[in-house]
From TrEMBL:
MF (Gene Ontology): DNA binding; DNA strand exchange activity
Coiled coil: 385-454
Protein name: DNA invertase Pin-like site-specific DNA recombinase
Keywords: Coiled coil
Resolvase/invertase-type recombinase catalytic domain sequence ranges: 8-165
PANTHER family referenced in this protein's UniProt entry, alphabetically: DNA RECOMBINASE-RELATED, DNA-INVERTASE FROM LAMBDOID PROPHAGE
Residue stretches making up the Recombinase domain: 172-301
């Protein structure tokens, strides 16, 4: 292609997974390196960078990448800060999109319809040249495949290691891990594990064991808090790692659309990997089983039949130890306290009514923030939705075109222009294309649906929030509790020693 000079370019920066791994190995900030390389390239070729879009999140889909959305929008406008845009520069083409077919399509469409040039130090892609477009399509497809393969290889490697008795997951309490990934007993922690099992066999409950370890000042596994949780004890008593076994693949992690991971238990035990005699056991099978039996025999605490007096029941947690907070009723009116149920916790209590007031005020703030956000969200989501809809229109046209072509070749066969061989060849070819279009069309439509749904969830939560604010004060504690549960997921309370009663923090997490 002809050499183009003095291009006004937008710079797009994004870290890949491999970059994150390299950074973890201490290879320095990747994006800073990319920025320097691109600056040098631009200088050398006499181009200008008129805007920089740096993705801080590492999502693969356009929906998860706010900077990409902004950039695509700018490309559609054709101008950035009053300057005409000629194209985009990035370190390699797959920074733009390693997402699904739809995302690929959206990006390519945007480049093509706006005649934007893609510059990478290795190659310049001009969408007006058909050959280049093929390149772009091919390479991004390869990048996606390679990405999937790396992923699969990683997963296979982990399963393989687990099958060989190596510890590839989280380091279990009581052990240390050598370079060979084999577990060895931790000198102090392994003793604590044995003590926990002994105490369980002696008939102590999980809570008693946890409190006793806290009293003895034994550091907790996480080290973040100094109070042992009974759930930690429960997990230790059930973990077969202490028998010298390695287990892997009992949970499955998948990416959520809105970020974070979704953890799912794998129920099919044939898919688990279990390796016995993988490392030195801390507990004998006999002790393990007896401890398990002892825990099972214990009867769970009986629930009293009295009605709930705490509107926050099972909703509010201690910011220090994670235990629930309880309401301590006082004879004197309005002097009820809210205190941590852990007897050794350092979190200071306060007047119940102060927390209740704070909660209501926080919910009011949420309400106004929410109404505002819903308005803004509309603006934020709109560009992507427009792009998707535009893509759907293009694809629908392609679908019709392909149908026409298919009809045509039937005619050509009947008229004797095509031989049967030629006819079959063309039919297969068209079929492949039609399938591709159909597939992409389906996922495009699904994406649009999902966006509408996301918006709906927020809108739907709004009336629940308003309902809580309007009716809360008219209800009994038990009904207040029910009402709060329609909107509040949890609350976390903390007050430091030596502060005033109202100088506490209350974090409220909504269930939307
Ligand atoms: Zn506490």
């Amino acid at each position: 292609m002809s050499l183009k000079l003095h291009l006004n370019l937008l710079e797009y920066l994004r870290k890949s997974r491999e970059d994150l791994a390299a950074e973890a190995r201490g290879e320095g900030d990747t994006l800073a390196k990319h920025r320097r390389a691109l600056a040098a390239y631009v200088d050398q070729h006499g181009h200008s960078i008129i805007g920089v879009f740096e993705e801080v999140v590492s999502g693969e889909r356009i929906v998860d990448r706010p900077e990409m959305q902004k950039m695509l929008h700018a490309l559609n406008e054709g101008k950035y800060n009053g300057k005409k845009i000629d194209g985009v520069i990035c370190i390699d083409e797959y920074r733009l999109g390693r997402g699904n077919m739809i995302d690929q399509g959206i990006i390519q469409d945007t480049f093509k319809t706006n005649k934007m040039i893609l510059v990478t130090p290795r190659k310049v892609y001009d969408p007006e040249s058909e050959l280049d477009e093929e390149w772009f399509e091919f390479e991004s497809f390869m990048a996606r495949r390679e990405f999937k393969m790396i992923n699969r290889r990683l997963q296979r490697g982990r399963r393989q290691s687990a099958a060989e008795g190596k510890c590839v997951g989280k380091l279990p309490y009581g052990y240390i891990k050598g370079k060979d990934l084999v577990l060895r007993p931790h000198p102090e922690e392994s003793r604590i594990v044995k003590i926990i099992f002994d105490w369980a066999v002696e008939g102590m409950g999980r809570k008693v064991i946890a409190n006793k370890l806290t009293d003895l000042g034994v550091p907790t596994p996480s080290g973040k808090i100094d109070v042992w949780q009974q759930t930690t004890i429960k997990k230790i008593l059930a973990n077969r790692v202490y028998l010298g076994e390695v287990e892997f693949g009992k949970s499955k992690y998948s990416k959520k659309d809105l970020g974070g991971y979704h953890v799912e238990k794998v129920h099919d035990s044939s898919k688990w990997i279990r390796k016995e005699n993988a490392h030195e056991p801390l507990i004998s099978v006999e002790l393990f089983d007896r401890a398990g039996d002892a825990v099972k025999r214990r009867i769970p605490p009986i629930k009293s039949g009295s009605p709930i007096s705490n509107p926050f029941a099972s909703l509010i947690k201690c910011g220090v130890c994670g235990y629930s907070l309880r309401r301590q009723i006082h004879k004197q009116n309005n002097a009820d306290r809210l205190i941590c149920s852990h007897y050794k916790c350092k979190n200071r209590s306060t007047n119940f009514i102060l927390v209740e007031d704070r909660l209501i005020r926080t919910l009011q703030k949420f309400l106004s923030g929410f109404e505002l956000e819903l308005g803004q969200n509309q603006v934020k989501i709109q560009p992507t939705k427009e792009l998707l809809n535009a893509r759907i229109v293009t694809l629908e046209k392609q679908e019709i075109d392909l149908k026409k072509q298919s009809d045509n070749i039937h005619d050509l066969l009947e008229q004797g222009v095509y031989t049967v061989e030629k006819f079959l060849e063309r039919t297969t070819d068209l079929q492949v294309k039609a399938n591709k279009v159909k597939e992409e069309l389906e996922s495009c439509r699904k994406d649009v649906e999902r966006m509408i749904e996301m918006d709906y969830h927020k809108k739907e939560a709004l009336p629940r929030l308003i309902n809580v604010l309007n009716t809360y004060h008219t209800l009994s504690p038990e009904d207040r509790n029910k009402l709060l549960k329609t909107i509040v997921q949890k609350m976390v309370y903390f007050r430091a020693e030596g502060t005033r009663l109202d100088e506490f923090s209350l974090e409220v997490f909504l269930d939307v």
